Amino acid sequence: MPFIDVKVAGPLTKDQKEKISLQFTATLQEVAGKLPESTYIVFTEVDRENWAKGGKLLSES
């Protein structure tokens, strides 16, 4: 049972999540032989002020 945890800074649209889900699921099926119905994907959208890179909040970039 593949489990993919996608974390992104800021929001994604429903359409973007659907496209990402389809592509990740297809890749696991093609490369690893995993059944699409056994693949789980969770999206975590993190507010840019709660994510930092290089000592700076992304909201400040």
Which helices and strands appear, and what pairs or packs with what?
Layout: E1 3-9, H1 14-32, E2 40-46, E3 52-53, E4 56-57
Parallel strand pairs: 1-2
Antiparallel strand pairs: 3-4
Core attributes:
single chain, 61 residues, alpha+beta, Macrophage Migration Inhibitory Factor, two-stranded parallel ribbon, two-stranded antiparallel ribbon, 1 helix, 31% helix, elongated
Question: How would you describe this protein?
Answer:
Helix content is 31%, strand content 30%. It is an alpha+beta fold. The chain has one domain: 2-Layer Sandwich (Macrophage Migration Inhibitory Factor). It is elongated and about 40 Å long.
Question: Briefly, what is this?
Answer:
By secondary structure, this protein is α+β, with helices and mostly antiparallel strands. It is 31% helix and 30% strand.
> Could you tell me the number of beta strands?
4
How many domain units?
1
CATH class value: Alpha Beta
Order of helices and strands: EHEEE
Q: What's the CATH superfamily, by name?
A: Macrophage Migration Inhibitory Factor
Using the 3D structure, state the CATH architecture: 2-Layer Sandwich
Query: Helical segment tally?
Result: 1
| Structural class designation | alpha+beta
Q: Note poorly predicted spans.
A: none
